[in-house]
Every structure is written in structure tokens, then in C-alpha cells.
Amino acid sequence: MWLAGRVWSGSRVAAILRRGDVGEDLARQRDSANASAWSRATGQMWLSASQ
Are 29 and 18 in contact (CB under 8 A)? Predict the structure, then answer.
């Protein structure tokens, strides 16, 4: 699940880079914020599952 999130995030950033539009920096920041929130959430699920 974590890996799927990373792959999704990476392909999203790659699409932004290819497009190269004006809002690319903002979109990349939003995507990295989403990715870190995703990994925090999955990390908490792993912790609760392992207890």
C-alpha cells in the first residue's frame, strides 16, 4: 500500500514535469505534502497492526 502511494506520487510529479506549466511548483509541493500525509497514515496503520 505504501509502495502504491509512492508510485502514484512519482508518476504525478513526472506528469507535472513533462507538462512544465506555471503551477508546477505549487502542484509538486501539494503532491509531496499528500505523499507525506499518506506515508504517515500508512505508518500508523502498520504500528496499530503490529501491536
Answer: no
Cα 36-16-22 angle, rounded to 5 deg: 110
Q: Amino acid identity, residue 50?
A: S
- Nearest alpha carbon to residue 35 among 16, 17, 12: 12
DSSP structure string for 5-42: HHHHHHHHHHHHHHH--TTHHHHHHHHHHHHHHHHHHH
What is the C-alpha separation between 51 and 38, in angstroms, rounded?
20
pLDDT digits (tens, 9 = 90+) for 9-36: 667 667 766 666 656 677 778 888 888 8
Asked if the model's pLDDT at residue 6 lies above 80, the reply is no
